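User: Assemble these into one structure.

Assistant: Restating your components, then the assembled model:
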Amino acid sequence: MLKIFVPKDKMPRWIGRIMDGARVFAPVKEGDGYRFRLVTRPDKLDFSYQNTRLSPKELVHPPAEAMFSYSLKKGDPKAGILEEIPKALGTRVVMGIRPCDAKAFQLVDVNFVTDQYMDPWWQRRRQNTVLVGLGCHEPCSTCFCTSVGSGPFDAGALDVLMTDLPEGYLLEAVTEAGRALLADAPEGAPASDTVLTEARFLAQQAEKALPRLFMLDPLREKAMTALFQEAFWEEVQFACINCGTCTFLCPTCWCFDIQDEVHQQEGVRLRLWDSCMFPLFTLHGSGHNPRNQKLQRVRQRFMHKFKYYVDKYGNGPACVGCGRCVQYCPVNIDIRRVAAMMTASCVCPT
Amino acid sequence: MKNPYLPYPVRIQEIITETQDRNLKTFKLVFLNPEDEAGFVYMPGQFAELSVAGQGEVPIGIASSPTEKGFLMFTVNRVGRVTTYLHNMKPGDVMGVRGPLGNWYPWEEMKGKNVVIIGGGFAFTTLRSSIVWMLDPAHRKDYGDITVVYGARNPGMLLYKDELVAWEQRDDITMHLTVDATDDPTWKYNVGFVPAVTKEKAPGAENAYAIVCGPPIMIKFTLPVLTDLGFPPERIITSLEMRMKCGIGMCGRCNIGTEYVCKDGPVFSMEKLATLPNEY
Ligand SMILES: Cc1cc2nc3c(=O)[nH]c(=O)nc-3n(C[C@H](O)[C@H](O)[C@H](O)COP(=O)(O)OP(=O)(O)OC[C@H]3O[C@@H](n4cnc5c(N)ncnc54)[C@H](O)[C@@H]3O)c2cc1C
Ligand code: SF4
Ligand code: SF4
Ligand code: FES
């Protein structure tokens, strides 16, 4: 596939031409953190970030999305009948997404696009979104992508992989959509062997810097019910305050709620992010709640990521090692430690 | 592919108050568009999301049988926001139905077998669908003996009373109705809990499947009875309930282990349930 080198001072021109044909989303500094936002000025791109605080899942699966609208007016022949809200979902390019976050989209695809049903919003946004990823040469201390089957330069879920070199960027097409972005780029020149060697070296260094913390194989062998009954869940759940931060920040957590909202005579049916960490998530109308204890909810999150998903799809785990939940958990619950316990292959980092 | 979250518009044709305490009402719904009705192909054991604009959706078992054409029937217990609103709606009102959803009782596997149906309380809805379906001349010959044990707190809490009486009088189905207690002198059936009546009246397990639906406590005490009768776990079938939203295996809410109860269930064999965390 096509590989080009674009000097740093020419990057805004390349990005500017992409902006002519598509909406570009990129990390933008807000307060002391970064978040993916629509960017309209090519010179405003800032790739000096490590990762965004909120994962880019919101670009494909927004925290709140109006699905249907309806009228409740008396006498309106259409009253009470739901209609899909039309959405213009034009082509978008996400610039600077990290390989792990892109991989998360792939892991979640199997949930939203199945033989039987297809989630129209997820599917359309995925189809219209081109992912231009940025390899990580300085993984954070909380990153562990290589322990969960990915890596700092894993191009598997990207359309283009960018490598930040001192003089410019190496841009490597991974898919046809990616190739199209690079094919007509007078700003760049075919990547020289020196550039390629330099990039490979950086990638290897980054990979080496990441410790392998646990083995995944034991997950498949252990029975679901046995893992479920392990004594260590008591210790794991002890400090959790069920704030839901981990699930909201996580790129592979997709659970949502559906709610109706009415303003005077007009209503919408919304879907909203939800979290298995909240008791209401599973509360029956009768008052019965199969996960009314905190332990059950904490266990559900880890079991889903490292066991249920793995057994269901023969793939995974449903964690890409981005480290957000480790970094932002107010009580320092560390998924790396929990995964090591679950796999009984502890090389405990903490 | 059709948007799986969009309900079909339907009109309430009839509302029947089923129980003495007026907490259970049966809704007969007709499709506004005939092509939607043609697309709604279901089997007994499946459910649907009943949708009320401005209120939300609730998953409810389909109580009508696919052999009954021209309408869908649901029996709804009044519990919270949506079900209470539904109870206050009137014939002629427009609402929505999304489905059919989930799997169904193993009708193919049960062919040529005796079927024992054990129901308690208002969980009898999809069991009614099943009985009507099996008794239909097109299907009756596919199944052996049909035995039904159905219990409620008292006679006033039984669903579908007219039909129960009609089935009582047929010779191609054996009915064992029971109530926990009653002071009604006209009650001529059993008095006692479902597990006890099952123990006393249920036929042997040979060549038979048991379908058990009811409150958790009833299921808990009925299972050992069935095991004693010789039913192996793969021939004891039940339907699970979990809080639901999407009904299509996407929102994650009804997840138990590797299964989404809404899509991979709600019908499971006891053999399958033994492999899953018992979080329901
Ligand atoms: C497969 C299946 C079949 C069912 N069949 C029937 C039936 O035939 N008749 C009947 O009366 N009830 C049935 N239920 C239970 C029924 O869905 C709940 O009683 C109902 O959702 C309560 O909604 P609410 O808005 O009144 O309560 P609220 O407490 O206000 O609930 C808010 C929302 O939470 C969800 N929810 C709450 N409780 C449940 C629950 N127990 N199960 C699933 N979702 C829930 C619903 O989306 C509901 O709109 C069934 C449930 C399932 C899962
Ligand atoms: S962020 Fe930490 S405290 Fe909050 S719900 Fe997650 S594990 Fe519990
Ligand atoms: S579980 Fe934690 S480390 Fe894994 S993908 Fe989610 S936020 Fe990142
Ligand atoms: S109700 Fe959404 S996954 Fe089952």
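Residues 205 and 217 of chain A are 26 Å apart (CA to CA).
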